[in-house]
Batch of 3 targets.
Target 1
Amino acid sequence: MSKLTGIRRGIAFVAIILGYFMALLDTTIVNVTMPEMTRQFNTAMEDMSWIVNGYNLAFAVFLITASRIADQFGRKRLFLIGTVLFVVTSILCGLSTSVETMVFYRVLQGLSAAIVVPVTIPLAADLFPKKKHGMVLGIWGAISSLAAASGPTLGGILTNSIGWEAIFFVNVPIGIAAICLAIPLIRESFDTSAGQKIDWLGVLTLSAAMFCITYGLINVSEWGWGSLEFIGYMAAFLVSIVLFFIVELRTSVPMLPLWLLRILPFNGAVLTLMMIGAGITASTYLMSYFLTGILGKSILEAGITISAMSLASMVISAIAGGMSNKYGSRLFVTAGMGVLAMSFYLYGSLNAASTEWDVVWRLVLTGVGIGLSVAPVMGASIRNVPEEKIGIASGITNMSRAIGSVLGVAILVSVLNTALSHYSGEAVNKIKLQIESSAALSAEAKEVILEQVGRMVQEKSSVGAKNAEGAVLLQLDTMEKALMSGVDESVKQELQAAFMQQRQELGQQLSQVSTELQDAFVASFSRTFHAGGWFLLLGIPFALISDRRVGKRLAIEPSIKDFAAEKDA
């Protein structure tokens, strides 16, 4: 353990937290600026999505590899390298002039985040005695929630006041501060049993497996679960992961000690974190659509509303982390998973008439579930492995959470799209019959309305009726001016009456369009939220085995010697 005491130890911990905060901030701060970047780069939203996906893909693929290299060659060294790379790529992202260069730099940024994030736990654990690890992880979880809460709000403020480039440049002072504090205060640490031989075949096969499963899940909502593309990537994942296990069983110095997977509480913690990752990401993703598409909030307003969840999580995490270290994590994590599932299910009772408070208290409940579960389960994951293996254990748990994030979004977006196809299909057919049977509306007006209806369905938003009304009114004004020129006064009066009737009919039709689509979207989101609640209940059995019972946990201190003796027996 480090010999730092008092203020110097606290400052060293701040250096670690700054690096961690910076890496996590960029997973949320970018989302709110996507519309502005789309306009500036003059490209499709599908292309822009890879600014987010590229970061997440690189992050998930390289987590375990980075953890292993840090264990072998120095965790402080990798922390500094990752932080420097993150600062440099942040500057390059802010200076990007095309989507292609932006995506490339975001991939490198995701790689640097994969280096920084997993080493923060072993570095922090090295600073403090074991009895304080629960407190440390509580703060670690609180900082995670703070990054998630401040990302959308900070991104909106910086974009509105300075420009989208500022969301990347804000990382520069944070990263420089982390580097300047870490160099003199954090001591180097290694896994002394890891050796320095790199298991290249293990790295390649595991990276291929993580790439295939992550890339496949990111694209499954577009391809479909039964598509050849998705099946092909899942088959490639299975082949790669089997080859990885074969390589690890035959090599003398494996990158991932497979005996870690024989520790039942560690496996429970890993699988629980996968479910928690699914719940956190899916809730923020779906609630963003609900708040903007159904309740008509701006992206910034939606981000501020969702921050209630992260703030609640921050408070509860700081408390639960320390308590779980004393009393064990199982009950905290199990209760957290139950609250998280319940809150997700309760989202299903929201509708277009829901108030701000109706949304906020459900989000706060979600935050309580996250706070009760994340820090305690992370604490359990490092308590139940040998101290030398905290680094690789951190990489595995973070990878599991990252995979859970894309898995949760993939499953629930598929549920949402299926529900939308059903409910909005019925609504659109009804709307078409109503509009086409209208004698007052011209053929051109009907075409514009139906085109806008299709756009609203595609965007999962029922608040676009005003856009349709504006487009049709503009067309009516143009037609009216053209027809009015050079006609008799009596004819003008007839034309004015006809156009007035069209305007009245337009208002009635658009009101009906908005109501029909709104009901369809609310029903679709309700079904999806209910399905998500039931899905997250699957995490409770994993939570129950995520830690040893208190007496047994305190009596047994896992070590590599114990596992070696067990293997030889």
Target 2
Amino acid sequence: MSGHQREQNASAALFERKLELQAADEAVQRLCGTATEGRSRLGGLLLYRGEAGLGKTALLAETRRKAMGEGKCTVLFARGSESTQPVPFHVVRQLFQPVLAPISEPERRELLAGWYEIAGPALGIVPPVGQQDPQGVRDGIDFLVTKLARRPEPLVMLIDDAHWADAESLTWLGYFAARLRETPLLAVISYRPEELSDVPPVFHDLVATRGARPVELRPLTPESVNRLVCNAFPDHSDAPFCREVWAVTGGNPYETVELIAKAKDRGLKPVEESAPLLRDLGAASRGSGLVARLERLGPAVTRFAWASAVLGTEIQPSLAANLAGMGPAQAAECADKLRHARILAGAIDLEFVHPLIATAIYASIPPATRTAMHGQAAWSVTEAGLGAAAASRHLLEVHPDHDSELVEQLRVAAREHLAVGAPDAARRCLERALQEPPPEEERAAVLYELGCSALLTSPPTTVNHLRTALSLPHLTEELRLEATYRLSQAYAHNSQLREAAAVVKEQADRTPPGPGRMRLQAAHYLWQGIQVEEQDSLARSRRIAELAEPLPGRDNTERTLLALRGFDCMIRGEDAVQVVEYMERALVEGRLADGMGWTNTEWGFEVPSIIGITLAYTDRLDQSEELFKEAVTAFEVSGWSGGHLAFAHDFLGLVFRRRGELDEAEAFLREGLRLGKRLGPGLPIHWDGACLLIDTLLARGRVDEAQAFAEENGFRAPYTPAIVLPDAASLAGRLLLAQGRKKEAVAELEAAGRKLEERGRHNTIWAPWALDLAVAVADEDPERARTLADKAVRHAAVFGTDTAVGDALRRAALVAEPHEALVKLEKAVVHLRRSPCKYELTEALVAHGVALLEAGKLPEAAERLREGLEAAEQCAADGLVATARKALASAVCEGVAPAGDTVR
């Protein structure tokens, strides 16, 4: 097809597309026109939807022409295709490689900054090595797009046939689309609505619900078809002939243009007598008619067309020739004939004129021949140096045949897919490897790799595969240990903590004494120790104490056991001095040991987390902050932008909450929740973030906001089986109490207390249920209230930190007799002045000031209240600010404090 013919056809495809073109014009103007007037560019999303052949491609081509011509935009273009749908990030690479390929490596590094190694493999500019977190890869692509969009030239991104784009690209696009309103980028996407069944949910959600309203393409009217016929036959066209063209094509622009072109090729006159011949010509444009037309071109041309259909898009003539079994000269001749027949187009790289043609030809290949050609294509792609991942889409189509070499190729491809952040693509390769099947001695290893590939995306899938792997022979001892630990992690990530503990215990019991067995025992105690309703808590605490007590921390297994022992002691409220001593032995000169870092896969991030949490609750806030900031850096550098990074933000929020910097705490917690929500609902990360944010909002005095957030995020019983910070049931009781719902609060706090006391967990900072319960029952049963409070004070004294003792005394004063309350509050202030937890000190100062005021000790009261007000403002504790100001106003009325003290 000549360039002139293609322009004519594209123009014909735009008949009756005035409104559709207007939508594109307006979108380009919003992006480009505002920039020329010195205002901010306005990006956005434009969707074109319609059946095959309705002109979506022509609309995108016209949008591209306008953007590059009138708008002087940088235009990125990609097209999905059936054949490349299994290739992860194929559409992403089509979009960005034309920008990245011409520049040098230093320029690419500068453009991508810290995301170069993370997103580079997915973009095709860095060799695939290791394993990348999919969310981190998407964040890296986001960074690249944002940088490109900030350049002087407006940026337009066009994606045709998005229904056939690979899942990884569509997932990125679905998430990134939420940022289009704040990014000076226009994204124009076309798709067929009837073929969206297999697209990722986030993309389906984008085009079906939350995205811009799609522009719906309709078939041409009879009048438009009549005009097309008249343009092609300017001398004269009979009305019956024109009507028959419309009847045969149904107004489909592509089929209309093709039918008119074939009528001209056959020399038909546009008269009524020729109309009966149009149906046969129309049939030759699609399905079996197209195949028959191809076969008339000869067996060599047919074979070359088959090879092209197997290769898909961006067809390299040399690969097609190799696959068709012919030399370069014959291949060039076949390509010319296919161009003349309007089946192929292009010079350097070939492509089908329309996806409908590619689909029809691919479907016409005899199944056995198609399978053999895919096998040959895989070999050709590999020989061309394009890598195992590129060959894998062909290997997936080959019939199973006990080919151990194919199994190895698929395993290599799976590793490459993991290295670009595409675990689903890796899973497909490994599942196909199992069907081959692999040699019996390799089956367990393939199952292990398959399970690990799904760990971040589907813990239940990981569980199934790893359990099967552990049941098979030929599993090396090293692989059995790794599979067991990964299986326990998958159970834990799926909130199945009992199963996680049980599986490592079962394997530990069959493991000979040594480092391997101790590692499994440590994992067993880890998963047991973070369960809320652990059945044998006291016995488990004794066992881990016996195991950990004599250990000096010589290796990472010993350090892990010491960390677990310290965490258990902290939750139980045992002597904090001893707790800190355990943590010091678990660290090396105050830092994580080599092999126990945040991104280490042997032990996971759970062990460093419990070290940092324990330090936070034992008033070692600076050390805890250093650890969690190190976590954020490590995860960001490694591209771990999912649950790990969300947890790190939550734990930094914990540190700032303990320190009393409540606004900083809230910011970190909201960021952690934002990161966690990208992973889907109901995960353990949501519980930690939600509990900490509710606790922080209550500390700020924003009770209604805390309740609204709790309702929106499903914070209600049954709570997660894992320990969260703070204790979920205790927090729920405190939230009810803050709302004045005392009866409900009493029931919630009593239930929480029973479970915690049965398990010997007495930390009054992590779970202050008894102190809150004392306040809830004080009016009706003051004696019980004092008993509860005094017992909590004793537990706090055992733990021994100034924060625990001071805060327990402050809370106990709320239910004590007035003279006792003053004594307790004075002691609380003394302890809390030595504590790094400024919010708890602020509470004590304000409470002491109010109590002094009520006791008539006005000068002392005013002094305490002034100090408390200043501290409350520094903590961003709005509720305490209001309380302190109200009390100071009373002091003003008494003539003690200057009037200026009540207003800031």
Target 3
Amino acid sequence: MTTRRPTPSRRSLLRAMAALPASALVLGEVPGLLGTALAAAPPSGSATRYTIVPFLDSNDGTVNVYQSDDATDFRLAKSAAYTPPANRIRDASIIKHTNGYYYLTYTTHTWQDPSTTIGFARSSDRLTWSFLYDYTVPIANLSRAWAPEFFVDSDGSVNIIVSCSTTDDEWIFTPYLLKATNSGLTAWSSPVALSGIGENHIDTFVVKLGSTYHAFTKNETTKYIEYATATRLAGPYTISRTGNWAGWGSYREGPALVQLDNGGWRIYFDGYGDGTYYYSDSYDTFATWSAPKGLPAVSGTARHFTVVKETVTGGVSLPKNVTRSFRSVNYTTRHWQSQSSLLNLPVVTASSTTAEKQASTFTVVPGLADANGYSFRDASGNYLRHYSYRARFDPNDGTSTFAKDATFIARTGTTSGSARFESYNYPGYYLRHYNYQLRVEQADGTELFRTDSSFLPVTAWA
């Protein structure tokens, strides 16, 4: 591939009903370091792991834990992983702290009730959580403290951005900044409103690149996610993108960002009006974004989450600068084979011809676009790449586009020793066989897709 690239808000309904009588990010294990050092495929034997801890559309009294190795295909790691001893858990934000523990902060009450506290929980393994405490946000006449978002700055300081309203207008929210004053995350500075973003903004999520803070925040009047920048975390911020600037549409909330292995940035947001959880990617420092897509598997179930990204052990170990053949996991007599420059999946056996065996043998080399990734060369020296979604072999033309088209990130397959090969420049798209032809297709969250896209490296046929 060389190219690719109205329902009322629940809160507005709630606000109308109430009138009747009755975001941080930590990437890997380097808090706040959000530069290109973390934008690389995992090394051999390691894997990328993304973790989310959303509350459920059907239940805001508990959270599930999901994990993914590609930021697209999230799988349930533990259901009902944490239920607070009292009240609710909504809008959970997760980090991994320098002490090795994972922390959650979250909204403690449902929308009907005053909510002057935010909750905290801790885990050593992301799966089993212990309640720590509820913290009363010290703002005079506070009515509601919603959607606390962790942010770990480049100096290592742990901060929370929380959306707060006061009793004079309980539905008008302003983002406030809290800073941890001890390493145990049990004491916090006095709240300071984020300058420049102002009232009637909620779900503010910040990332830092270089010396610039980038804020994504929902405008509660227009229901669009807006974009602002500042040179200090507390501001003043300048809102420079409003309306449908990114093509995400309106009635969107809960933005959360994470950097992908290929250096791009992914934003997740809750399309609460249509029941879909979306993601969208940017490769030009947030100027433009891909068309939003529904997140497989968890869309319609998960609500408002943030993401923690880590590099962990247990990934694919595939030697480089060696020859291998690749066998389908679910069609065990079928192997990759170059046929008229296209990659297909015919039957290959000991009785196959020498030419067929040679066409089914490939040299595994460091990825042309990322040495931690993989590229594959056939016997004639051509490289496996995707073009119009089809897997094919072409000579390297030396361009950046070709290098990216010909680079794949190895993710763990469905059987022991197998691998799934994700397109480097189309995250979430995998080499997958269909009708015994190989294409790059978008993961759909099903076990069939995972199996169809899993291949076992075996001794080379030639």
